[in-house]
Design a protein that fits this description.
- It is built from seven helices and no strands.
- It is mainly alpha-helical and 219 residues long.
- Among the domains are: 69 residues, MYOD Basic-Helix-Loop-Helix Domain, subunit B, CATH 4.10.280; 63 residues, no CATH class.
- α5 crosses α6 and α5 crosses α7.
């Protein structure tokens, strides 16, 4: 009995000790779990902050690029630098900058087309001048090869007299047929005169008559 009582007492002490230990253990905070939660929460916030910061930087970079683009347009387009009295000293809006840029681009397209047409015309002129140059060179060469050729040709004065005689004859009929009372009547008379006095047979007769007059004067 004494041994039994001693074992029971020891068991009771051990049981109470375990109970006290478990109670103490349960009352002590779980430092490992809390340390884990304490470190994980700032990590999540830091990740969100980094994402937010990266998004903010990307957005700011995009806005800076757009602003630089508009600033470059204002510096390039001449009409954006001109003073707009309707706006005053206020800064040009993006809509106005874009519209002025579009207008300037359309103006440049028109100028480019105009210049291309002028270049095409000049090329044609150059080609015509080259052809004339070749023809004159051939005439000069032919004259140098045959220096006696053309001695019997009429002078420039005779050619002018022929032209003058033809024009004088035409002007006489023109002056007699044309009325200048009004522009409408003038137009009608001009067409009527052309139909009557500028027929091929009529012009031929005039030229023959002028040549006969000059022939009698020359010989």
């Amino acid at each position: 009995p004494a041994l039994f009582m001693e074992n029971a007492r020891k068991g009771s002490i051990v049981s109470r000790a375990n109970s006290i230990g478990s109670t103490s253990a349960s009352s002590v905070p779980n430092t490992d779990d809390e340390d884990s939660d304490y470190h994980q929460e700032p990590y999540k916030e830091s990740y969100k902050d980094r994402r937010r910061r990266a998004h903010t930087q990307a957005e700011q970079k995009r806005r800076d690029a757009i602003k630089k683009g508009y600033d470059d347009l204002q510096a390039i387009v001449p009409t954006c630098e001109q003073q707009d009295f309707s706006i005053g000293s206020q800064k040009l809006s993006k809509a106005i900058v874009l519209q002025k840029t579009i207008d300037y681009i359309q103006f440049l397209h028109k100028e480019k087309k105009k210049q291309e047409e002028e270049v095409s015309t000049l090329r044609k002129d150059v080609m015509a001048l080259k052809i004339m140059k070749v023809n004159y060179e051939q005439i000069v060469k032919a004259h140098q090869d045959n220096p006696n050729e053309g001695k019997d040709q009429v002078s420039d004065e005779v050619k002018f007299n022929v032209f003058q005689g033809i024009m004088d004859s035409l002007f006489q009929s023109f002056n007699a047929s044309i009325s200048v009372t009004s522009f409408q009547e003038l137009s009608a008379c001009v067409f009527s005169w052309i139909e009557e006095h500028c027929k091929p047979q009529t012009l031929r007769d005039i030229v023959i008559g002028v040549l006969h007059q000059l022939k009698s004067q020359l010989y």
